[in-house]
Write a structure and sequence with these properties.
It is a single chain. Helix 3 runs antiparallel to helix 5 and helix 15 crosses helix 17. The chain folds into two domains: 311 residues, ABC transporter transmembrane region fold; 175 residues, P-loop containing nucleotide triphosphate hydrolases (Rossmann fold). The strands form three sheets. It has a six-stranded mixed β-sheet with strand order 6-9-10-3-11-12. A four-stranded antiparallel β-sheet has the order 2-1-4-5, with no helix packed on it. A two-stranded antiparallel sheet has the order 7-8. 38% of the residues are buried. The protein is 64% helix and 10% strand. The radius of gyration is 35 Å and the shape is elongated. The chain is built from 21 helices and twelve strands. With 583 residues, the chain is of the alpha/beta class. Bound molecules: adenosine-5'-triphosphate. Adenosine-5'-triphosphate binds next to helix 12.
């Protein structure tokens, strides 16, 4: 953990070293000042020596100025190192997250990653700043003040020692108890962020189902859990300040009482008594600082652990050592492929899949909900790896390709497609940043997106809001298809990507594919039989297995599921699940 986090501080090594150095310099000045003050009182004020007051007073001002300078510089370097550390952590985490496979993301959950990138990093930033500024300063100040107190008067200094031991022990138990609660708060932040994220991304569904009250109470629960934890933690911390004050005043009273007696007995001077009182404050302030550092460190351990988990997470999809950078063609072959999301699960989602697809073929894939159609196509671009068996693209195992090369050749229009905030043109160029406007328009024409884009007042410069909420479902799907086409892939996968497009436009798109990208292998997952009936062959999926793989005409004669769905949809117009479920 330390090695991983240490790598992110390297850049700020100088600032990380200079901060404690300046803080110690500040402590030295803080220790010297009461001594000078004692000299002013004993040798200047009491003896009426004005020149001594001026001379020592000058040194005192100089020491205070050096202390001020050291404090400011320490603060400045500390802030630079801690904010830089936080920036590096955020960026390193974000970069590593970009390498994550779907399985890695599933492991952490999106909300969990957001909390780690925000709350946990801020926590580490505060802790690091505190550590740099206080970790050396507080013990140094405590030790210096204690040594000075003992040099002045052993008897009175022993009172400090007793107070430090007593107060230190109390603070340790209080802070330890509070920290326990602080550590519990982070997983609760994950829950709250998950609730916010889910609500915001599904706000339309929430409104459509009038579930605002339900969502509010769900959020209140998540937020309330954090509140409860903090109340418990803070309840512990409320003892700190009164306990400190009580000890400080107690010590001052005792020192004044005993000190006054000693002054009368001439075993102590007034100046020494004043320095002792100043050291009393230094000692107790250092204790307070140490207890805060203790809380920050223990709290940050939980965050550090959560951040390190993300930084050390390696994508379970590895690029081969000597990768292939060229995919020969769009042929696909599954050889006895099994696949499970959870390796420990008893039954794989895909079982013994064996099939072969020729380059340029149009393959329809149909099957009931959960029959593993998406899981099947996700393996082709290595969004997940097969659990057993082998998957070949262009005659080579997908694991032999450079991942970027493979994914550039396999274009997937996901079921849950996403548009980003930006113009239509910018969104299209996500598929290929080099694409000219003409190429974008050509792709839109093929995806039948040109008609509605040209009707928009700003055409291709129309701004899309986040998530594509200002375009209709069908328009969004067509834009996503155009974006996928711009990659000019050897394999194009449409995962239920025309479900919101009317049947006439759907067939127009498929015709354009056949005529204009004949060499591209097309895999079309669909619920509508009309979307696959002109395919070269159709895969019928049933419960993670292939129930049939043939031309639509042959399937009509040989495959009961296909025939039933065909008949029900052409005669009755129902969808796949309704009819398959009636079997
Ligand atoms: N990320 C995941 N983690 C664990 N299980 C998953 C995951 N995604 C899908 N599954 C499970 O795998 C099975 C197949 O899901 P898949 O999405 O491949 O089916 P599908 O045929 O595409 O369904 P649909 O037509 O509804 O999209 C389902 O039982 C589903 O619960």
């Amino acid at each position: 953990m330390l090695k991983t986090l240490g790598a992110q501080v390297k850049e700020f090594k100088k600032a990380s070293v200079l901060t404690p150095v300046f803080m110690i310099l500040e402590v030295i000045m803080e220790t010297v000042i009461p001594l000078l003050m004692a000299s002013i009182i004993d040798d200047g004020v009491e003896k009426g020596d004005i020149s001594h007051i001026y001379a020592v007073g000058g040194w005192m001002v100089a020491a205070a100025a050096v202390g001020l300078f050291a404090g400011v510089m320490g603060g400045k370097f500390g802030a630079r190192a801690s904010t830089g550390f936080a920036r590096n952590l955020r960026e390193a985490m974000f970069e590593n997250i970009q390498t994550f496979s779907f399985a890695n993301i599933d492991k952490f959950s999106t909300a969990g990653l957001v909390t780690r990138l925000t709350t946990d990093v801020t926590n580490m930033q505060n802790a690091y700043q505190m550590i740099l500024r206080m970790c050396m300063r507080a013990p140094a100040s405590l030790i210096c003040a204690m040594v000075m107190a003992f040099t002045i008067n052993v008897k009175l200094a022993s009172i400090y020692l007793a107070a430090v031991i007593l107060l230190g022990t109390c603070l340790f138990f209080i802070m330890n108890n509070a920290t326990k609660y602080f550590q519990q708060a982070f997983p609760k932040y994950d829950d709250m962020n998950a609730s916010v994220q889910e609500n915001v991304s599904a706000i339309r569904v929430v409104k459509a189902y009038v579930r605002e009250e339900h969502e509010i109470s769900k959020f209140h629960r998540a937020s309330g859990n954090i509140y409860k934890i903090f109340v418990k933690a803070e309840r512990n911390l409320t003892y700190n300040a009164p306990l400190m004050q009580f000890t400080v005043y107690g010590c001052i009273l005792l020192i004044c009482w005993l000190g006054a007696k000693m002054i009368v007995g001439t075993t102590l001077t007034t100046g020494e008594l004043m320095s002792l009182l100043a050291y009393c404050m230094n000692i107790l302030m250092s204790l307070m600082m140490l207890s805060m550092v203790f809380v920050m460190i223990t709290m940050s351990i939980a965050s550090a652990r959560r951040i390190t988990e993300v930084l050390n997470e390696k994508s379970d999809l590895k690029n081969p050592e000597a990768p292939l950078y060229e995919v020969k063609d769009g042929s696909i072959e599954f050889r006895h492929v099994d696949f499970a999301y959870n390796k420990e699960s008893e039954k794989p989602v895909l079982q013994d899949i064996t099939l072969s697809i020729r380059p340029g073929e149009t393959i329809g894939i149909i099957g009931g909900t959960g029959s593993a159609k998406t899981s099947l196509v996700n393996l082709i671009s290595r969004l997940y790896d097969v659990t057993s068996g082998q998957l070949l693209v262009g005659g080579k195992d997908v694991k032999e390709y450079d991942m970027e090369t493979l994914r550039n050749e396999v274009s997937v229009v996901l079921q849950k497609n996403v548009l980003f905030s930006g113009t239509i043109l910018e969104n299209l160029r996500w598929g290929n940043k080099e694409a000219t406007k003409e190429e974008c328009m050509e792709a839109c024409r093929m995806a039948c997106a040109d008609e509605f884009i040209e009707k928009m007042p700003e055409g291709y410069e129309t701004h899309i809001t986040q998530g594509g909420s200002n375009v209709s479902g069908g328009q969004k799907q067509r834009l996503c298809i155009a974006r996928a086409l711009l990659k000019k892939p050897k394999i194009l996968i449409l995962d239920d990507s025309t479900s919101a497009v009317d049947t006439a436009t759907d067939s127009k798109i498929r015709r354009a594919f056949k005529e204009e990208i004949p060499d591209t292998t097309k895999l079309i997952i669909a619920q509508r039989i009309s979307s696959v009936e002109n395919a070269d062959r159709v895969i019928v999926m049933e419960d993670g297995r292939i129930d049939g793989f043939d031309t639509p005409q042959n399937l009509l004669e040989t495959n009961a599921i296909y025939r039933e769905v065909y008949e029900s949809q052409t005669k009755g117009g129902g969808d796949f699940d309704e009819k398959a479920g009636e079997e």
